Amino acid sequence: MDGLFLTFExxxxxxxxxxxxxxxxxxxxxxxxxxxxxxxxxxxxxxEQIRNIILDRDNTEMxxxxxxxxxxxxxxxxxxxxxxxxxxxxKLVLCDRYVDSSVAYxxxxxxxxxxxxxxxxxxxxxxxxxxxxxxxxxxxxxxxxRIQANRPAGDVDRLDVETKxxxxxxxxxxxxxxxxxxxxxxxxxxxxxxxxxxxxTLAIIRQIAQNYFKG
Length: 215
Known about the structure:
Helix content: 40-55%
Number of domains: 1
Order of helices and strands: EHEHHEHHEHHEH
CATH superfamily: P-loop containing nucleotide triphosphate hydrolases
Distance between the termini: 22 Å
Largest sheet: 5 strands, parallel
Shape: globular
CATH architecture: 3-Layer(aba) Sandwich
Mean pLDDT: 95
Structural class: alpha/beta
CATH class: Alpha Beta
């Protein structure tokens, strides 16, 4: 594969999606059709349908392992239908969440085992990991305060009603994954002003994907 696969990760309230969208606005004209921007769960018709099931607030009875399996199923479809074809076409792929999210949220947050969730996703992805992962780190309380301050009225999904303890386990899970993948993880301090977070992130992308910005 000639393309480059970069993922954006972070706990709730880290601002990764906001930053990713801002970066895309800055680089999309330069990269044109050599850029693919996508997200998980989702990214194509089948995976988006699975996303709706996962996040539906009415599905509060969903078992933790069922949730993990649904994430990995959506990921598999996303990978084979969307990501791999883009990489084979030489594109720079920016993806909002990937395997590390499942390991942190389901493995650590839901306490069903980080290694078990990772192995499930190894099967789903056939060991396909990103070339680099940009991780936006933020203390749990700061992230949750941001969510409360910025969420539109009535815009609440199933994961938004989790306890602070759940989010603390997610954060701890992310830090463990980052420590085990130091070469792949590029950590950004998400407590900085937004403009600084954006500039730090763009600098990382330009360094990793410098061939896309030549000329």
